[in-house]
Predict the structure.
Amino acid sequence: MRALKDLLEKNKQWATKLKASDPDFFSNLALQQNPGYLWIGCSDSRVPANQIVNLPPGEVFVHRNIANLVIHSDLNCLSVIQYAVEVLQIKHIIVCGHYGCSGIKASLDNREHGLIDNWLRHIKDIYRYHEAKINDMKTEKEKLDLLCELNVIEQVANICHTTIVQSAWKAGQELAVHGWIYGIDDGILKDLDVCITNINEISQTHRIK
Ligand code: CO
């Protein structure tokens, strides 16, 4: 119970294999990290950031939570964004949602789930903004799929509304915020084409001059 021997063994095999193909891999990584991407994704075990874009350690700075939310008062997520943008000078932030998200589903089932209901309320709000459009969908699956997509789009906007991102743009830093969604049933990522790269692409109300 105490020692997860299997995992430690798998780790040893993995590190040995990587080192065999590139003897300096870990010693080079130990000196610095220079990731090109910040990934904000769902905690769902089926959506592992590095694996699904086939990138090795060192390439992706990652923040994951239930239903890939970026909440204005979440110091954890905001700190990750600040570090990624200001210190690591990352040029691409990717919000990656996924179809079949249990968080999205739970937000609409009208049941009590305990503490997490406070977190899921943010998703209920998104549903409320787009209620008519979502209810136009014929099946439950189509409704949930659409809400999964709209949630990603909302989080892309939330990132762009932060002072962190707007300050970076103001300083002339190149920074694009992307919205993607992942199919857990086929392993394929879809670009939702909602990429935002400057202050003129966000709503007037949220622009900080
Ligand atoms: Co999920």
